[in-house]
Write a structure and sequence with these properties.
homodimer; alpha/beta; 318 residues
Chain lengths: 318, 318
């Protein structure tokens, strides 16, 4: 089968063996994959990665222990957990210390004609949800995670800083819960979120200061983090959604004097994400910037790396 | 009257006019004051401070609009709030944007024979509580604030890092709620907290890693902050209780991957603090390192600045 390979900063396509299906696992044929910023970072060698990337996907089950899965269109949670530890017992397999992670940590990714995942990780995609929408389940789940960690009152205004892929999804997901204001630099991109009711504000010289009880930083930049810190009111919460490489300098004085809370936030559960997508509450079509065949993965990655590109999809057929 | 003055890094004692009592305020005769690390920082010129310091005190009301206060022994909340804004309405006068702060921000401090405070800031000290204990109400309230901000289940083990004045009080306050483990470098100091049941562990080469759901950093140092971060389990909470000067470098990757929450924490309400003190749950006597007359304030500050010194008290009589 065709599979994407990342090594030493290069993207290549190789012929690989179809992965062996272990007990309790499903063999899944890829229908569509999505390139995430994490994939671009893996390409650059962060986390010492080399291997097969891909964790945003929708596929079709080819074989499984439970034959009911066969032929089903599925998405799958990306953390492969032990199922036995304290974390797994608390429904937090995504923090299982023994976990591997699809296309990120020690489990071959979805950018191949076939992948495997534990059956317990799978969710069936409702018939009304297209592949092009279902492929967003993973990043939408990451956005939904915020609502699981920080239970802010519905109706409370929230600010999202950053109009990249994740920022646009976060703003849309939060808008389904509370009036959301997106701060970004690109009118066109922000229009995607505006379509579902998000208020868009261009980041200008005058930054809002101490204006919001809840601020989400989805910029992935040092400057974004500082700006987000300044936007939070006393006793407010700053949700940190995208990693900044290297260390970020934090002035602890305002953090303590204003009793700010900073919440790191990563992956989320797929169920609420798929529900939001099914309800048609998100404007996903304009988030797709380009679609490439799996065999064109090097081109697809190059396109995804162009500044300001939204979602680039990988199609095994095409 | 005699009053302490900080200016350009120097401590002096001056003859000053007794402060005028405004409407709604009480004039209070000092009985005992306590020197806090913040006072030492004000001396060094942080926050551009010059003037009369002192925010830890117990005193006796000399005059007040409400004559019931006269003759009462009191402690007083240090934030002088407007009483009208959203914050004040929520009982969070300590975040009132118009606030002044006793001995810190635009309100002359308690290191003088007399001070003034709004009557609404005062709490009567129960007869069974000595001056030497009552003077700890403010820092004990700061420790209690943690329990107001972070509602962790009683019985959940908590780690406190740092065996300075504040760390010792925090460990004792938390121990009244949950089994608390104090990490420090000084057996003798930690013994103060051990007396009320706190488990003391010397910080050695082997740092605990990902061991606690709740960690309080009371070190005030960069190294302490990093160590505290490493002690928190995934989805855990790090409470930041003492300011580190300059910026602290934070690696956002573990913060996000492990979904850590960082909570800045400052002043607290006096009522629960005074209650804890009255109940005799805290071991305060050995926390007093020295006692000086107000006129000896320069010596008292010098002593408080010696490394490892616990609480230094200022006595207007003596």
């Amino acid at each position: 089968m065709i599979a994407v390979q990342l090594q030493d900063g290069r993207v290549s396509v190789e012929n690989a063996r179809r992965p062996a299906r272990r007990k309790g696992y499903a063999l899944i044929g890829l229908r569509l994959g999505g390139i995430c910023n994490t994939d671009l970072e893996l390409k650059r060698g962060y986390y010492g990665f080399r291997g097969r990337p891909g964790h945003e996907f929708v596929g079709e089950v080819v074989s499984a222990d439970d034959r009911n899965w066969v032929g089903k269109r599925v998405v799958g949670e990306i953390n492969l957990a032990c199922g036995m530890c304290e974390w797994c017992g608390r429904g937090l397999g995504r923090h299982c210390p023994a976990r591997t992670v699809l296309g990120i940590v020690k489990h071959p990714g979805a950018f191949a004609e076939y992948l495997t995942l534990p059956e317990s990780n799978l969710l069936e995609v409702p018939g009304s949800v297209t592949d092009e929408h279902a492929v967003f389940t993973e990043p939408v789940a990451a956005a939904c995670e915020i609502l699981e960690q920080v239970r802010f009152p519905s109706g409370q205004p929230v600010a999202v800083l950053g109009d990249g892929k994740l920022g646009l999804l976060i703003a849309q997901v939060l808008q389904a819960h509370s009036p959301t204001i997106l701060y970004g630099r690109h009118r066109q991109k922000m229009a995607v979120a505006q379509a579902v009711g998000v208020e868009a504000r261009l980041v200008g010289k005058r930054r809002p200061r101490r204006e919001f009880d809840y601020v989400v930083d989805a910029t992935g930049s040092r400057e974004g983090f500082s700006a987000a810190m300044q936007m939070v009111r006393p006793r407010g919460t700053l949700i940190l959604k995208s990693t900044v490489h290297g260390t970020v300098g934090i002035d602890t004085a305002p953090l303590i004097v204003d009793e700010i809370t900073i919440v790191g936030s990563r992956c989320g559960r797929f169920k609420p994400a798929l529900k939001l997508i099914k309800q048609g509450k998100l404007n996903l079509d304009p988030m797709i910037a380009a679609r490439f065949r799996l065999a064109e993965a090097p081109k697809a990655f190059a396109r995804a790396e162009e500044r300001g590109t939204l979602k680039v999809l990988l199609d095994p057929g095409g």
